[in-house]
Amino acid sequence: MRKLTYYVASSLDGFIASPTGGFDFFSMEPDYLDAIAAEYPETLPGAYRAFRGLTGPGRHFDTVLMGRRTYQVGLDAGTTNPYPQLASYVFSRSVLDSPDPTVTFSSTPLATVRELKARDGLGLWLCGGGALAAELLPEIDAFIIKLNPVIAGSGIKLVDLGFQPHRLRLTATRALSSGVVFLSYESTTPAQPR
Q1: Over the stretch 52-96, which tens digit does the pLDDT of each residue have?
Q2: CB atoms within 10 A of CB 104
Q3: Which distant-in-sequence residues (6+ apart) come within 8 Å of 136 by Cβ?
């Protein structure tokens, strides 16, 4: 069965984006971008992959999942499919028509993820946002948090959930000279039906 990994940048205080969805306060230092390009090249936007000359299939993921507000950031920049190298799914309760035929919209995150997990293929990458992460929490198998040395103060939470402890087990760490630390965890809380 395929695994769902929440692979996302976060501030020290647990925010993955500004209150308006921006993420330009996160590191874009060369060591950070090089680390992503080396280990998770499929998670870089298509335009940046082309700029860096990165081609070929993904190493870890062949599918990306995101909430509508995360997807909107790309739309606002004129990109209808930020990750054309991956099968793209956007979850929304308000917008169900895709402006791009290569992007699938769904209003049923849990059912869709369970269906995708049952298919053959590489892993599933949840790239945001916090509300979608909260809804999918029972299905998230692994977390890779790119912890950035910044305090945001407010914004979109890593997991937008009330007090509901979810246990994780640290499996790896990697610190970069820019101060970004990659923290890898496995979920140890059994999936609960929702």
Answers
A1: 999 988 899 999 999 999 999 999 999 999 999 999 999 999 988
A2: 15
A3: 4, 6, 65, 109, 110, 113, 126
Q: How do the domains of the chain map onto residue ranges? A: 57-163
Q: What is the pTM of this model?
A: 0.95
Alpha-carbon gap, residue 70 to 12, rounded angstroms = 20
Between CA 51 and CA 140 the distance in angstroms is 31
CB contact at 8 A, 46 and 193: no
The burial class, CB within 10 Å (0-12 / 13-18 / 19+), for 193 is: exposed
CA–CA separation, 71 vs 83, rounded Å? Answer: 10
Phi, psi dihedral angles at 113 (to 5 degrees): -65, -40
Angle (CA) 64-161-194 rounded to 5° is 70
Residue at token pair 């190298």? 85
> Locate tokens 């610190």: which residue?
175
CATH topology of domain 57-163: Dihydrofolate Reductase, subunit A (3.40.430)
Yes or no: say if 115 and 130 are a contact pair by the CB < 8 Å rule.
no
Angstrom distance (rounded) from CA 32 to CA 2: 27
